[in-house]
Amino acid sequence: MTIDATVPNVARMYDYYLGGYHNFAADREAAEKILAIFPDTPAAAHGNRRFLQRAVRYLSREAGVRQFLDIGAGLPTQGNVHEHTDGRVVYVDNDPVAVAQARALVEDDERVAVAQADLREPEELLADPHVSGHLDLGEPVAVLLVSILHFVPDEADPWAIIARLRDAMAPGSHLVVSHLTLDGVDAGPAGEGTQVYRRSSAPIVPRPRAEIERFFDGFDLVDPGLVWVGQWRPAPGEDATSHGYGAVGIKRS
Ligand SMILES: C[S@@+](CC[C@H](N)C(=O)[O-])C[C@H]1O[C@@H](n2cnc3c(N)ncnc32)[C@H](O)[C@@H]1O
Questions:
Q1: CA geometry: angle at 234 spanning 146 and 21, to 5°?
Q2: Model confidence pTM above 0.90
């Protein structure tokens, strides 16, 4: 595995925001630049994780979903998907470090598999033996795209990628998305933040609400719809700091 530790890596920058240790000096330096512009980024990153966990618990306990495909799963941290469901889980990431760490964490758990694949190549991703061998796509599945789509530029057509995944999902399947936005943020800090990520492993593309809503074409949103992640079925007293919108949708039949 070759790792260029001199290029800030988006998985490791996120790990740093969450207080993890899987990061190098270049990751920390870039992350600190973001923190100087947006000091509440760690609170927002933790809020995004809690959104993911609440969505998985809802799907597992209330919607009866037994299979989860977590694309852009990231470095294992607290509260991973398989800890919030007793269903089958496949973690997917295109970052070899995230994949190696995830494999080390779950190697003894036969409910969980890990694939190295790229969301921008959905056919290959779905055909990866760790995905196709572990999940039955003839049965409902929850596809989790949590804090990953803002690393897929418009030129790669993330809407078409989701449509391809949707076509492969059985009736009763769900889609979970959270996505960074700069709605309500002044142009100055917005531009500075985007600039920091331009020098990272994956330039960031924050999107306005209407563009994020289009990811759910062909899905019906469950309550409360597309909202700030901190407002999606929060537990009482939970911190609501959010840098993005999130929603859960069920595939329209
Ligand atoms: C901000 S982290 C999100 C981690 C986790 N989903 C969460 O929300 O807590 C984004 C992850 O997406 C991964 N990623 C970015 N672009 C990707 C792509 N095209 N295919 C697969 N993974 C990708 C990164 O390596 C990183 O681990």
A1: 50
A2: yes
